[in-house]
Fold:
Amino acid sequence: MIDIKTGSIIFDKGITINQNSDFDSVYQMKLGEIQEVNDMANGWKWLRIKNVSISGRFFVMSFAFKDLTFKELSFTLSEEKFDLNSNWSNWNEKEEFENLKKYQDWLDTEIGKNHEFEWGKIWAEYDSKGGFSSIRLRYN
Structure:
């Protein structure tokens, strides 16, 4: 899914997004079930895509663009489709830390132990303010 030599994100059917991808081209790909745009009105724009299917797994991906150029990706993954109607009533901190461990293991399997590259870096984190774990990729 992630080319460690270039930082490109490789989807099914030969679709690739890289650090040269712009907002409009990624938006037009219609990669998942739902796409949401959050324009921060300061040059930053986020494109959140839910239930993107890649090699039998499902992803919720948030692409960050600065002046419409791709800068960062935050994503979660699951073996099953995400419930798009979930809410805080089914949130559990213990499960989020389990997700963090799952994401760290996924990174080690997918990327290897080194998570810093010439093109940028990738890591798993728990966001205590947002209450969720995710994998993040940031280009230099």
Notes: DSSP finds two helices and eight strands in the chain. The CA atoms of residues 40 and 126 lie 23 Å apart.
